[in-house]
Amino acid sequence: MGRGRTIGRAAEEAGVNVETIRYYHRQGLLPEPAGSSNGFREYPQSSVEQVRFIKRAQRLGFTLSEIKELLSLGGGHCEEVQALAEEKLSEMDARIRDLSRMRETLAGLLQGCREGEGNPECPIIRAVAGDEEQQKDDY
Fold first, then answer.
1. Any residues with CB less than 8 A from the CB of 38 and at least 6 apart, and which?
2. What distance in Å separates the CA atoms of residue 34 and residue 2, rounded to the nearest whole number?
3. What is the pLDDT of residues 70-114, one digit of tens each?
4. Which domains does the chain have, with CATH numbers?
5. CA angle at residue 83 from 68 to 92, to 5 degrees?
6. Which is more confident, 134 or 103?
7. Which residues contact 2 (CB under 8 A, 6 or more apart)?
8. Which segments constitute the HTH merR-type domain (predicted)?
9. Residue 99: exposure state from Cβ atoms within 10 A (0-12, 13-18, ≥19)
10. Rounded CA gap, 73 and 126, in Å?
11. Which of 24, 43, 66, 82 has CA atoms 20 to 30 A from the CA of 91?
């Protein structure tokens, strides 16, 4: 088959399933592979490496559209990549703050449950079902 590999082999080497590679093609994250003389598409090593890059970037919190932008920048645009990474870090910090507030709220509700043992109405259910103004204050 030459230097390429089938989609199944490329997926296996990259640690994804075949549908993931097809999806990345549809999203414009991977170039279409060249066809071979036997009619099968051949995926070069660079495609496997690009899929691995995409998966690592996802684990860092980047969306596929952000990854597409990173890929379009390539390695020679460090300042632009840095700006994207700083923006992503700010988004993560905001999410962490939101999650911390939600955790505090839920922990408080759980404490209310523990203190109100035997209460016929669950404080968590009552709080979640409460009015919208109260929910805005809680979150």
1. 1
2. 12
3. 999 987 889 999 999 999 999 999 999 999 999 999 999 888 888
4. 1-76 (1.10.1660.10)
5. 80
6. 103
7. 36, 42
8. 6-73
9. exposed
10. 51
11. 24
